[in-house]
Amino acid sequence: MRSLLTAAAISLSFTLFLTPVFLRLFRKWGWGQVIRTPEDIRNPSHHTKRGTPTMGGTIFIAGTIIGYLIGGYTGNNPPTVSGLLVLWMMVGFGVVGFIDDYLKVRSQRSMGLSGWRKILGQVLVAVPFGVVALTLPNAWGETPASAYVSIFRDVPFLGFFILGPIIGWILYLLWITFIGVAWSNSTNVTDGLDGLAAGVGIAVVGAYSLVVFWQFNQSCQSPQIFLDTPLACYPTRDPFDLAIVSAAFAGALVGFLWWNAPKAQVFMGDVGSMAIGGIVAAMSILSRTELLGVLIAGAFIIGTGSVVLQRLYFKATRGKRLFLMSPFHHHLEMRGWSEISIVIRMWIIAGLLAVSGVGFFYVEWLART
Questions:
Q1: 7 in Cβ contact with 70 (< 8 Å)
Q2: Strands (E), the chain
Q3: Which of 3, 45, 234, 323 is the most exposed place for a label (fewest CB within 10 A)?
């Protein structure tokens, strides 16, 4: 418990108190938000945000790493493969977002990496993650990830290697890559209003902290737990370390939100939103709750779903629009909702979905006991 509290406290303090120092550096380096010209954007109110320091995701990425390492050290919990894999996804996707942000800032245009180049970068991060996560067992033979699709835990009849090792590896890596790309782009789309992605991220990652901490308390590695409730124990590898890294990330987001809440003094940029997606993807895979993640992190799907529906409806009706503007939060802006009203309501929705996911997770455990 000491490691959890220390990791969260250090990360929160880092982003809360050191963000102004980073902002002075960002202004010096010219890292200001780029807004599209009036001809390219239908929401002119966003032009007041031009020049606001961006790429603030680098702050909470650094805060998470420092908090995680200090928290583990103070509680005598050295880093594990699972914890390092989460950091790999966070930093790797963050680097892809950083390149995208930097290209925008350097050219002073709203276009950075093309869509396919961005996806290629995400694939280059997700594939090594998937390989390492399935090839490094611990003393109990448990690997960080599993070769099965999971909901609350692995689903036995949804294994990837039923058709053989070659096809199995292909299917497994496609699944891991899909999860990483999907969550990374979903969080990226959600980052459109001040504090929106950060607030939703706190609810989602906080929920995953509870999930993996419960898995730690009910771990199959504990002989007594295994003997008492063998059907209900969790084979998750390194659940306590996953709880530390997720607590550190949640704490870092809380401190960052102080400066990112409306009216934002700093934007997280693609480096931040994609890093959040990396954390969500890694936590869902390593906690073996991949499909449950659709509920826990459902608020991130609202924006992406509205974009997909808008495009499908536009093609089906040959030019008509389902929403005034997509993603959905911009549709509400066009309807006259204030930015703060949209953000707070999305935070509430995110909290309800995250709590519901944790609730279903607990009910499934009760059913097995």
A1: yes
A2: 148-150, 154-159
A3: 45
